[in-house]
Design goal:
Blueprint lengths: L1 H69 L4 H10 L4 H11 L4 H11 L2 H10 L8 H9 L3 H7 L21 H24 L9 H5 L1 H14 L3 H21 L3 H27 L1
Helix pairs in contact: 1-2, 1-8, 1-10, 2-8, 3-4, 7-10, 11-12
């Protein structure tokens, strides 16, 4: 009788343990599948958002390849500048200074000054990243960060770790979305530059300015929607653009940095006033 009782208890324990394990495994699998599906959705969303950036990059990077070859530089030099610098205006300035025979320290210093604008962009952008992103991934994100990527990533949307319009600033940007957003423009940059290098001898220099205006059109298309219905964004844009225009004859490229600081100050001032008004009304 005792043996039968022990056998019965052991059997039920085994059955119960197996059922619990199966349920736990099934639950973990469901969670894993949901996480994987969410990451796929975020990645595809990033790819869709990158289409506009790619459309603007192709003509500009194609022009860079044409300009580099037109200035007499080697194909590898032009391609490496596009692949390793990946910073728009500083690429064109760097390639022109190389062709003019400028010293390397001078080129590096001027490129550093021009690219200081990314310091302010990175300070803002870094606060929006998910804390779980690894250092290696952050290195890639920082390297491939451009003004266009920053502008697009700040636009509120669904399916990118942002639940509602009110919570958009509290929800961090995930790695899958950023990979989908940043990889296509960089690949387009390489392909378009290589195409420009290859076709440099067939494209008349007369068309270069028209091709290079694509980035300006893209930035305008990204900025204008942010101005609708926002007094703060409008004030930031007008103050930054106006100060850059006024200071450019005096400071040259350095006026961009001063204009960014002025725009930040205006934005902070208006934000502070809005908070104060809300506090009084309460």
């Amino acid at each position: 009788m005792r043996k039968k009782l022990v056998w019965y208890i052991r059997t039920n324990v085994v059955i119960f343990t197996g059922t619990v394990s199966k349920y736990a495994l099934s639950s973990n699998n469901d969670k894993g599948e949901k996480l994987m599906n969410d990451q796929k959705v975020m990645f595809r969303t990033g790819l869709k958002d990158a289409i506009a950036i790619v459309a603007g990059f192709i003509p500009a990077c194609f022009t860079f390849g044409l300009v580099g070859k037109g200035l007499g530089l080697g194909s590898l030099e032009v391609f490496l500048l596009s692949a390793l610098v990946f910073a728009g205006a500083s690429q064109f300035i760097g390639v022109k200074m190389l062709a003019a025979g400028a010293a390397a320290p001078v080129i590096l210093l001027l490129t550093l000054i021009i690219n200081l604008r990314y310091l302010f962009i990175s300070l803002s952008f870094g606060g929006q990243l998910n804390r779980n992103i690894s250092v290696l991934a952050r290195t890639w994100i920082g390297f491939s960060l451009t003004e266009e990527v920053y502008a697009v990533s700040m636009i509120p949307r669904e399916g990118v770790n942002r639940k509602t319009e009110n919570e958009k600033m509290n929800q961090p940007l995930g790695l899958p979305y950023l990979l989908g957003l940043q990889i296509p423009p960089y690949v387009a940059n390489l392909i378009a530059t290589a195409s420009g290098i290859t076709l440099a001898s067939y494209i008349p220099a007369l068309y270069l300015p028209a091709l290079n205006t694509s980035l300006y059109a893209l930035l305008i298309a990204l900025v204008v929607p942010q101005l609708k219905g926002s007094l703060r964004n409008m004030a930031i844009c007008i103050s930054a653009a106006g100060s850059s225009w006024l200071l450019n004859p005096l400071l040259g490229n350095s006026s961009i940095l001063i204009a960014m600081l002025i725009g930040m100050a205006v934005g902070s001032l208006i934000k502070g006033q809005v908070k104060a008004e809300k506090g009084v009304s309460v």
